[in-house]
């Protein structure tokens, strides 16, 4: 089976859109999905900075949405041909954290999703000349017309929903909304500060508004702050003097929860100082180095924890988010700009330049 895909062959190279060949169909526990849309996430682009740990050449993409065209059977084959699905991250399904309904903390998460897990003796996906690609990215490799995926990554959705919009629910929007809904369990009136108003941060703002929480959004870019305000947050420039004090004033004495999407140590320290006693700071962005903490930041019962994939079980959270969207309470579609697959490099440039919050590639355009 031959189809088009966006291939990254070198860490500093542009993507090339080329013919690839699937030499065998789905095995037990796998699905073949015709991709209708795939979001471009910062994690896809971070491969360029992975110091060679993420193997190349590779087909990236891990926010796919599409239609199942073939199944491999097996005990996980609850999804059938013709089903509409959103694809999320991969997990092993049997380690202690997977069994405890925490698949984002799977013992094999990094290997399966980032560094070439599920290696094959005979590669099934190659380029037109027979050259092998790295094992599938995040269980998907969805920057392509078709993706061979682990069945556990797929979440069935209502076929009436627009697949062109749904892909980012598998990772970016899942992460931000899940931090608010699952990790913090924020409720009416809870004060929350969100550092960084990109795709993850704005999803957190939307989720906070949907639950009745009071969100303050901090960002350096006025246009991102305007978006956060549109979605119900109080905007606050990251460059404002006395940021912790201003957050405390806006949150009636301090935030109960803070979500950092920036990995900026100065902002993280500001957020900790702005927390009320027993407040919690969640970190979702990978820190580039050490995180020096100022004196007093962890006093009075404050805690810091890492949040992966919004602490989500995708099969539970994705339907919740689509229901909120249908009710007009999670307007994530307002963050999306679509691009044909051939424009993958333009989408990356626009994302890097901040001209778009969430690029989505349409392989059949």
UniProtKB/TrEMBL annotation:
Domain Alcohol dehydrogenase-like C-terminal: 199-311
UniProt entry tagged with the keyword Metal-binding: yes
Classification via InterPro entries: ADH-like_C, ADH-like_N, GroES-like_sf, NAD(P)-bd_dom_sf
A molecular function GO annotation: metal ion binding
Domain Alcohol dehydrogenase-like N-terminal span(s) in chain numbering: 28-157
Keywords per UniProt: Membrane, Metal-binding, Oxidoreductase, Transmembrane, Transmembrane helix, Zinc
Gene3D superfamilies assigned to the protein according to its UniProt record, in alphabetical order: Medium-chain alcohol dehydrogenases, catalytic domain, NAD(P)-binding Rossmann-like Domain
Coiled coil: none
Transmembrane portions of the chain: 160-181, 193-217
Pfam families: ADH_N, ADH_zinc_N
Cofactor(s) annotated in UniProt: Zn(2+)
SUPFAM superfamilies cross-referenced by the UniProt entry: GroES-like (SSF50129), NAD(P)-binding Rossmann-fold domains (SSF51735)
Family that this chain belongs to: Belongs to the zinc-containing alcohol dehydrogenase family.
PANTHER family according to UniProt: NAD-DEPENDENT ALCOHOL DEHYDROGENASE, S-NITROSOMYCOTHIOL REDUCTASE MSCR
Protein name as it appears in the record: Aryl-alcohol dehydrogenase
Organism annotation: Streptomyces harbinensis
């Amino acid at each position: 089976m031959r189809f088009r895909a966006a291939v990254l062959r070198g860490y500093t190279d542009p993507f090339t859109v080329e013919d690839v060949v699937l030499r065998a169909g789905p095995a037990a526990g796998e699905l073949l999905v015709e991709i209708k849309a795939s979001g471009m996430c910062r994690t896809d682009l971070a491969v360029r900075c992975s110091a060679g740990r993420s193997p190349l050449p590779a087909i990236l993409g891990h926010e796919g949405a599409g239609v199942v065209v073939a199944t491999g059977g097996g005990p996980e084959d609850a999804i059938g041909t013709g089903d509409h699905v959103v694809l999320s991250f991969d997990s092993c399904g049997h380690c202690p954290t997977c069994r405890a309904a925490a698949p984002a903390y799977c013992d094999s998460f990094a290997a399966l999703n980032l560094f070439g897990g599920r290696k094959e003796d005979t590669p099934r996906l190659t380029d037109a000349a027979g050259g092998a690609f790295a094992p599938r990215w995040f269980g998907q490799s969805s920057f392509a017309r078709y993706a061979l995926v682990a069945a556990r990554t797929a979440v069935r959705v209502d076929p009436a929903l627009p697949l062109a919009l749904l892909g980012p629910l598998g990772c970016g929007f899942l992460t931000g909304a899940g931090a608010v809904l699952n990790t913090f369990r924020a409720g009416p009136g809870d004060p929350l500060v969100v550092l960084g108003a990109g795709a993850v941060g704005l999803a957190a703002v939307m989720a906070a508004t949907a639950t009745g929480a009071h969100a303050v959004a901090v960002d350096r870019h006025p246009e991102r702050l305007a978006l956060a305000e549109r979605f119900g947050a109080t905007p606050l420039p990251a460059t404002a003097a006395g940021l912790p004090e201003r957050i405390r004033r806006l949150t009636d004495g301090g935030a109960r929860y803070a979500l950092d999407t920036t990995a900026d140590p100065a902002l993280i320290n500001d957020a900790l100082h702005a927390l009320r006693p027993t407040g919690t700071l969640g970190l979702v962005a990978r820190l580039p180095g050490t995180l020096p903490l100022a004196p007093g930041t962890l006093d009075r019962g404050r805690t810091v924890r890492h949040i992966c994939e919004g602490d989500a079980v995708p099969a539970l959270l994705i339907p919740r988010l689509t229901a909120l969207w249908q009710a007009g309470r999670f307007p994530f579609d307002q963050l999306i700009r679509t691009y044909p697959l051939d424009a993958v490099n333009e989408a990356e440039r626009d994302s890097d330049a901040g001209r778009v919050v969430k690029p989505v590639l349409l392989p059949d355009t």
